[in-house]
From TrEMBL:
Keyword terms, alphabetized: Coiled coil, Cytoplasm, Isomerase, Metal-binding, Mitochondrion, Nucleus, tRNA processing, Zinc
Lineage: Eukaryota, Metazoa, Chordata, Craniata, Vertebrata
Record flagged with keyword Cytoplasm: yes
InterPro entries xref list: PsdUridine_synth_cat_dom_sf, Pus10-like, Pus10-like_C, Pus10_N_euk
Intracellular or extracellular location(s): Cytoplasm; Mitochondrion; Nucleus
GO terms under cellular component: mitochondrion; nucleus
One Pfam family here: Pus10_N_euk
Name assigned to this protein: tRNA pseudouridine synthase Pus10
E.C. number: 5.4.99.25
SUPFAM superfamilies documented for this protein: Pseudouridine synthase (SSF55120)
Domain Pus10 N-terminal eukaryotes: residue ranges: 113-287
GO molecular function annotation: metal ion binding; RNA binding; tRNA pseudouridine(55) synthase activity
Family membership noted in the UniProt record: Belongs to the pseudouridine synthase Pus10 family.
Keyword Signal on entry: no
Length: 531
């Protein structure tokens, strides 16, 4: 028991007598070494009691040498006992810790710790470790490391506070002190014990930065109401939240404990905390993998295919979308729960995307499979392309979350190239449109188009047509190739949108113009890298 020193003896004695487990005693003795916590429970209890039996005082009470102040005695029994329970020296009579032959230790059942409610007892044992690992293995995830997430009942903070107040008060009589922040955190001690066991059983290391999370949620229904007095004492700390089932969250309880006065706390909660009858229960053992990101470029060859599902008033308008044609295969291969699709801009349902395609990225949420070779990604790309003649993808690859930022970086400053088939009401000759070829850096004022006003705020946006090149077809038709600032509404630039886009092709030609077909020929975003 080299981790404990003489100054710890009163804390050990006091906490043992009030139903605290050995590992919680180590925490209150500020033992920062991990090794003692990992020892078998029965060995720890035996050694703690052996530690207390060393150098006993002749009068049967425990007395220790302290450099400054002088040696004092510590009360060893229930603090509420009256004067009749004091011995002739004014100290509470000591309860025997164990029979001389240690038979009490061997035969008596382990009592539930009054501080951790069994977290550092039952849930550090091999049976629970195997239960967690069985859940992990049955979930069928790919992972090379893990991080353990533990959710503890909020009342544990109340019980720990009560135990701390008790210890602080008693060792204060010896001229000693114990800061609350010096106590080893319960979660930290628990992970010291269980991490090596999980690591050995799963065959991978524990890593705080791992994307694979094993989460355990503990509860203790027997003591659920122990936090409630805090809501009456500190109502400002407990405010309902939409995503929380109870106002008694761990953070709210901790905040209230920091705010409440010690005397008010002691009026409502016993110090030491009462002995529970039951251990905590593990309500949930769940696994999750961090998101995986896949990027590429897509071409859309259909004029009857939206980029994302087209649903109006709960009714689906078209049977599929670019997003779904790509993601359904990724979801199946990565075995993900869900996905989020994003792209560099979007095209209308009747607009094709040609050339090198439009950059896109898909976030696959909680994937079971995460490792793919370059060849496997190439095969996945081919599977997507073989599944439909409406789209094709290229440069399909795994990317990081940070890399997706390149797709959105300076999106408004990027350029896009279009090809538009234009109709005019009045007959035109080639010389009527040739002047368009000489217009450079044409500035537009575009009021939010009527067709998107339901989903975009009303505003006037300045956009630039960098270059135009006309291609005469007949008296009423010509093709217009445009290089524009990203975010330019091309359809509105052609027909004017009832004067909401100025200037427009109609006003420039002094006649009514409309757009019959539109193709995106290039999206000048240099991402993702070409393969």
């Amino acid at each position: 028991m080299s981790s404990l020193t003489e100054k710890d003896r009163p804390i050990v004695q006091l906490l043992l007598n009030t139903g605290t487990c050995p590992r919680c005693i180590f925490r209150f003795c500020c033992v920062g070494s991990q090794a003692p916590y990992k020892r078998p429970y029965k060995d720890l209890m035996k050694e703690l009691k052996e530690f207390l039996k060393k150098h006993p005082e002749k009068d049967g009470t425990v007395c220790f040498e302290v450099a400054d102040p002088p040696c004092k005695r510590i009360r060893l029994e229930n603090l509420e006992e009256g004067p009749d329970d004091l011995n002739q020296n004014g100290v509470v009579k000591q309860i025997p810790l164990v029979n001389e032959d240690n038979t009490a230790l061997e035969s008596s059942p382990v009592k539930v710790c009054s501080v951790c409610l069994g977290i550092l007892q039952e849930f550090c044992e091999v049976d629970f470790v195997k239960k967690v690992c069985q859940k992990v293995k049955s979930a069928d995830y790919q992972f090379t490391s893990f991080v353990l997430s533990v959710s503890l009942p909020p009342q544990l903070s109340v019980r720990e506070c009560a135990a701390w107040m008790l210890v602080k008060r008693e060792i204060g009589k010896l001229g000693l002190s114990l800061a609350k922040d010096d106590i080893v955190q319960l979660k930290e001690a628990y992970k010291w014990i269980i991490h090596p066991q999980l690591s050995e059983e799963l065959g991978v290391p524990a890593d705080g930065k791992s994307l694979f999370e094993v989460s355990v949620v503990f509860a203790h229904p027997e003591t659920d109401e122990e936090c409630h007095f805090l809501a009456r004492a500190c109502p400002d700390c407990f405010k309902p939240a939409k995503n929380k089932q109870s106002v008694f969250t761990r953070m709210a309880v901790i905040k209230a404990l920091e705010k409440i006065k010690e005397e008010d706390f002691c009026k409502h909660f016993s110090c030491p905390p009462s002995s529970p009858k039951n251990y905590c229960v593990a309500l949930e053992i769940q696994c999750s993998n961090g998101a995986v990101f896949v990027a590429g470029r897509y071409n859309k060859y259909s004029r009857n295919l939206p980029q994302t599902p087209w649903i109006i008033d709960g009714e689906r308008k078209l049977e599929s979308s670019v997003e779904e044609l790509i993601s359904q295969h990724l979801m199946a291969e990565f075995k993900a729960d869900s996905f989020n699709f994003t792209s560099s801009g979007r095209e209308d349902v009747d607009v094709r995307t040609l050339g090198n395609g439009r950059p896109f990225a898909i976030e696959l949420v909680n994937p079971r499979r995460i490792h793919f070779t370059a060849e496997e990604m190439k095969g996945l790309q081919q599977t997507i392309n073989n599944s439909s003649d409406k789209i094709q993808v290229r440069d399909l690859q795994l990317v990081t979350r940070e890399a997706i930022g390149h797709m959105k970086e300076g999106e408004e400053e990027k350029t896009k190239t279009y090809s538009a088939l234009v109709w005019t009401d009045k007959a035109i000759q080639k010389e009527d449109i040739v002047f368009l070829d000489h217009l450079k850096e044409l500035k537009l004022d575009q009021k939010t188009p009527l067709r998107v006003l339901h989903r975009r705020p009303l505003a006037v946006r300045q956009r630039i047509i960098h270059t135009m090149e006309s291609e005469y077809i007949d008296e009423h038709h010509f093709r217009l190739h445009l290089k524009t600032q990203a975010g330019t509404y091309i359809k509105e630039f052609v027909h004017g949108d009832f004067g909401r886009t100025k200037p427009n092709i109609g006003s420039l030609l002094n006649r009514t113009a409309d757009i019959l077909e539109l193709d995106v020929e290039s999206v000048d975003v240099d991402w993702p890298p070409a393969l």
